Amino acid sequence: MTPDIAPIEWTGDSLRLLDQTLLPARVEYRDITDVDDLVDAIKRLVVRGAPALGVAGALGVVVALRQGEREGWDAATLDAAITRIREARPTAVNLAAGVDRVRSLAEKGTDAVLAEALAVLDEDVQGNHAIGRHGADWLSTRLGAKPLRLLTHCNAGALATAGWGTALGVVRELHTRNLIDTVYANETRPLLQGSRLTAWELHQLGIPYYVQPDSAAAGTILRGHVDAAIVGADRIAANGDTANKVGTLAVALACAAAGIPFLVAAPWSTIDLSTPDGEHIPIEQRSPAEILANGPASVTPEGARAHNPAFDVTPARLITALITETGPLILADGQTPARAR
Ligand SMILES: CSC[C@@H](O)[C@@H](O)C(=O)COP(=O)(O)O
């Protein structure tokens, strides 16, 4: 299946990434043939979003193998390079899972690894379309077949995946059914994935939207302007606790207070049955500079300390349903990923 926006591709010679740090001002691609460049791209969020990181991890093993062939690496050097890709960011389980899925094929040769990595990419696009259909069915059955006002946080669109998107995939499917009134896109401080990326995607798709400050979300929800919230996930524990972009928990709490559905849309590749609950999910701490400064200009007194977690964990009890490619799991009714598998 051909994705529309292609944030990540294999060109035949290189891993091509749409540079998400430059959007929406510039559409530029980076051709990656070097492990250092890939690790830097992952850390700087040139490529980002859990499913896209899974594909980057899998294709990253191909990059490492080819660089190793070019530069005559021994097995230990190759292994260390692959591990650096795997550990470039800690929270999205897809990154490590993508690396692990293809790594063991290295002894069969680079072509075998490449074929499996491309399968990861293809499965993601197909799975996202299924998530879109399941989510749209669930929402229109539960809320009625009327145009919906949905809220989302961060970017869980085509850019965050191999194509189509998860939470935004549901929005897109509803839009094709004429069932979207408007989308509230939280701006997503501090790196603005909502105002830069989600708004860019919604604009291109012709879907009506507002960008709002993250801090407006609770008020928008409690004033009755939102029918449901839908977000993506970086890692879902066996009990359904879900790590996603920092600020997601506040949205879930507001939805619970307002009595409206809070949905997580994510593929099974984001579910980590080896992590029992949210307390065990590693949370990435990012650079203080992201919140102590606005570009080059400091916005805080000298010596200010920063607490800058990139993600928070929403407890399963606040999640109405988890929409996967195999259908919805109704966490509100006590279903969990562990019991479903
Ligand atoms: C389908 S993407 C789901 C999540 O990965 C997304 O919501 C998110 O939190 C991304 O964080 P990011 O730091 O931009 O990689």
Automatic annotation (TrEMBL):
Site annotation Transition state stabilizer: residues: C154
Superkingdom of origin: Bacteria
Record EC number: 5.3.1.23
Catalytic activity field: 5-(methylsulfanyl)-alpha-D-ribose 1-phosphate = 5-(methylsulfanyl)-D-ribulose 1-phosphate
A Pfam family it matches: IF-2B
Transmembrane portions of the chain: none
UniProt function note: Catalyzes the interconversion of methylthioribose-1-phosphate (MTR-1-P) into methylthioribulose-1-phosphate (MTRu-1-P).
Alphabetized UniProt keyword annotations: Amino-acid biosynthesis, Isomerase, Methionine biosynthesis
The protein's annotated pathway: Amino-acid biosynthesis; L-methionine biosynthesis via salvage pathway; L-methionine from S-methyl-5-thio-alpha-D-ribose 1-phosphate: step 1/6
GO molecular function: S-methyl-5-thioribose-1-phosphate isomerase activity
Matching InterPro entries: IF-2B-related (IPR000649), IF-M1Pi (IPR005251), IF_2B-like_C (IPR042529), Initiation_fac_2B_a/b/d (IPR011559), M1Pi_N (IPR027363), NagB/RpiA_transferase-like (IPR037171)
Biological process terms in GO annotation: L-methionine salvage from methylthioadenosine
Positions of substrate binding: R48, G49, A50, R89, Q193, N244, K245
Protein name: Methylthioribose-1-phosphate isomerase
Active site (catalytic residues): D234
Family, similarity comment: Belongs to the EIF-2B alpha/beta/delta subunits family. MtnA subfamily.
